[in-house]
Protein backbone atom coordinates (compact mmCIF):
# COMPACT_ATOMS: atom_id res chain seq x y z
CA UNK A 1 0.00 0.00 0.00
CA UNK A 2 1.38 3.41 -1.04
CA UNK A 3 0.49 7.01 -0.24
CA UNK A 4 -1.45 8.48 -3.16
CA UNK A 5 0.10 11.91 -2.51
CA UNK A 6 3.84 11.15 -2.31
CA UNK A 7 4.12 7.41 -3.08
CA UNK A 8 5.69 6.52 0.27
CA UNK A 9 4.98 3.15 1.92
CA UNK A 10 5.19 4.58 5.46
CA UNK A 11 1.46 4.50 6.26
CA UNK A 12 -0.12 4.09 9.69
CA UNK A 13 -3.77 3.69 10.65
CA UNK A 14 -5.39 7.00 11.59
CA UNK A 15 -8.94 6.23 12.70
CA UNK A 16 -12.15 5.44 10.87
CA UNK A 17 -14.11 8.02 8.89
CA UNK A 18 -17.51 7.25 7.40
CA UNK A 19 -17.05 3.54 8.18
CA UNK A 20 -13.77 3.42 6.19
CA UNK A 21 -10.24 3.04 7.54
CA UNK A 22 -8.16 6.19 7.22
CA UNK A 23 -4.37 6.12 6.89
CA UNK A 24 -1.75 8.79 7.58
CA UNK A 25 1.53 9.02 5.68
CA UNK A 26 4.59 9.51 7.89
CA UNK A 27 6.48 11.13 5.01
CA UNK A 28 4.07 13.89 3.95
CA UNK A 29 1.68 13.92 6.97
CA UNK A 30 -1.38 13.72 4.71
CA UNK A 31 -4.29 11.35 5.22
CA UNK A 32 -6.17 9.14 2.78
CA UNK A 33 -8.75 6.39 2.58
CA UNK A 34 -8.48 3.27 0.47
CA UNK A 35 -11.08 2.85 -2.29
CA UNK A 36 -12.27 6.42 -1.81
CA UNK A 37 -15.58 6.84 -3.67
CA UNK A 38 -16.02 10.58 -3.05
CA UNK A 39 -16.54 12.73 -6.14
CA UNK A 40 -13.45 14.61 -7.29
CA UNK A 41 -13.91 17.76 -9.35
CA UNK A 42 -11.43 18.68 -12.06
CA UNK A 43 -9.58 21.98 -12.06
CA UNK A 44 -11.34 22.80 -15.35
CA UNK A 45 -14.76 22.51 -13.70
CA UNK A 46 -13.62 24.53 -10.67
CA UNK A 47 -12.41 27.34 -12.93
CA UNK A 48 -15.69 27.29 -14.91
CA UNK A 49 -17.67 27.61 -11.68
CA UNK A 50 -15.43 30.40 -10.35
CA UNK A 51 -15.56 32.28 -13.67
CA UNK A 52 -19.36 32.03 -13.59
CA UNK A 53 -19.40 33.40 -10.05
CA UNK A 54 -17.12 36.30 -11.05
CA UNK A 55 -19.47 37.07 -13.96
CA UNK A 56 -22.35 37.46 -11.52
CA UNK A 57 -24.07 34.07 -11.74
CA UNK A 58 -25.64 33.14 -8.39
CA UNK A 59 -24.30 30.28 -6.29
CA UNK A 60 -27.58 28.35 -6.43
CA UNK A 61 -27.66 28.72 -10.23
CA UNK A 62 -24.09 27.43 -10.44
CA UNK A 63 -25.11 24.49 -8.27
CA UNK A 64 -27.88 23.57 -10.71
CA UNK A 65 -25.78 24.19 -13.84
CA UNK A 66 -22.71 22.16 -12.83
CA UNK A 67 -24.22 19.74 -10.26
CA UNK A 68 -21.78 20.86 -7.54
CA UNK A 69 -22.99 21.38 -3.94
CA UNK A 70 -23.36 25.06 -3.04
CA UNK A 71 -21.30 24.58 0.13
CA UNK A 72 -18.41 23.34 -1.99
CA UNK A 73 -18.75 26.33 -4.34
CA UNK A 74 -18.55 28.67 -1.34
CA UNK A 75 -15.48 26.78 -0.10
CA UNK A 76 -13.79 27.17 -3.52
CA UNK A 77 -14.57 30.90 -3.58
CA UNK A 78 -13.09 31.43 -0.11
CA UNK A 79 -10.08 29.18 -0.83
CA UNK A 80 -9.11 30.96 -4.04
CA UNK A 81 -9.79 34.38 -2.48
CA UNK A 82 -7.25 33.52 0.26
CA UNK A 83 -4.75 32.37 -2.36
CA UNK A 84 -5.14 35.60 -4.36
CA UNK A 85 -4.82 37.69 -1.18
CA UNK A 86 -1.54 35.94 -0.33
CA UNK A 87 -0.23 36.55 -3.86
CA UNK A 88 -1.17 40.22 -3.64
CA UNK A 89 0.48 40.58 -0.24
CA UNK A 90 3.73 39.15 -1.66
CA UNK A 91 3.58 41.25 -4.85
CA UNK A 92 6.32 43.82 -5.29
CA UNK A 93 4.79 47.21 -5.99
CA UNK A 94 6.95 49.33 -8.34
CA UNK A 95 8.28 52.61 -6.97
CA UNK A 96 8.05 54.51 -10.26
CA UNK A 97 4.99 54.86 -12.44
CA UNK A 98 7.16 54.19 -15.51
CA UNK A 99 7.72 50.63 -14.27
CA UNK A 100 3.98 49.85 -14.51
CA UNK A 101 2.63 48.56 -17.82
CA UNK A 102 -1.03 49.13 -18.62
CA UNK A 103 -2.51 45.75 -19.47
CA UNK A 104 -6.17 46.61 -19.86
CA UNK A 105 -8.27 49.74 -19.61
CA UNK A 106 -12.03 49.56 -19.40
CA UNK A 107 -14.95 51.25 -17.61
CA UNK A 108 -13.07 51.02 -14.31
CA UNK A 109 -10.56 53.59 -15.58
CA UNK A 110 -13.22 56.28 -16.06
CA UNK A 111 -14.55 55.64 -12.53
CA UNK A 112 -11.06 55.88 -11.02
CA UNK A 113 -10.29 58.99 -13.08
CA UNK A 114 -13.14 60.83 -11.33
CA UNK A 115 -11.63 59.97 -7.92
CA UNK A 116 -8.02 60.93 -8.64
CA UNK A 117 -7.24 61.52 -4.96
CA UNK A 118 -7.38 57.82 -4.14
CA UNK A 119 -4.93 55.20 -5.39
CA UNK A 120 -6.55 51.93 -6.35
CA UNK A 121 -5.45 48.52 -7.45
CA UNK A 122 -7.03 45.65 -9.33
CA UNK A 123 -6.35 42.13 -10.42
CA UNK A 124 -6.40 40.91 -14.00
CA UNK A 125 -6.87 37.16 -14.30
CA UNK A 126 -5.86 35.56 -17.57
CA UNK A 127 -5.75 31.94 -18.63
CA UNK A 128 -2.03 31.58 -17.93
CA UNK A 129 -1.09 34.06 -15.23
CA UNK A 130 -2.20 36.71 -12.75
CA UNK A 131 -1.30 40.38 -13.23
CA UNK A 132 -1.45 43.04 -10.54
CA UNK A 133 -2.59 46.48 -11.67
CA UNK A 134 -1.98 49.72 -9.84
CA UNK A 135 -4.04 52.78 -10.72
CA UNK A 136 -2.80 56.15 -9.45
Structure description:
There is one protein chain. With 136 residues, the chain is α+β, with helices and mostly antiparallel strands. It folds into 3 domains: 1-38; 43-90; 97-135, no CATH class. The protein is 36% helix and 21% strand. The protein contains 4 helices and 5 strands, in the order E-E-E-H-H-H-H-E-E. Strands 1-2-3 form a 3-stranded antiparallel beta sheet, with no helix packed on it. The protein has a two-stranded antiparallel sheet with strand order 4-5. A hairpin with a 5-residue loop joins strand 2 and strand 3 (31-33). The radius of gyration is 21 Å and the shape is flat. Residues 107-112 and 132-136 have low confidence and may be disordered.
List its traits.
single chain; 136 residues; alpha+beta; 3 domains; two-stranded antiparallel sheet; 4 helices; 36% helix; flat
Summarize the model shown.
This protein has 136 residues and is α+β, with helices and mostly antiparallel strands.
Question: How does the SSE layout of this entry go?
Answer:
Blueprint lengths: L10 E7 L2 E6 L5 E3 L9 H12 L4 H8 L3 H21 L16 H8 L5 E6 L4 E6 L1
Antiparallel strand pairs: 1-2, 2-3, 4-5
Amino acid sequence: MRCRHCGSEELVKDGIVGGKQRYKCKSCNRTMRLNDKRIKYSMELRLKVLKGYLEGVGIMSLERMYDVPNTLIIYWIRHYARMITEILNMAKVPDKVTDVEILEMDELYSYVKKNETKSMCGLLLTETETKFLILK
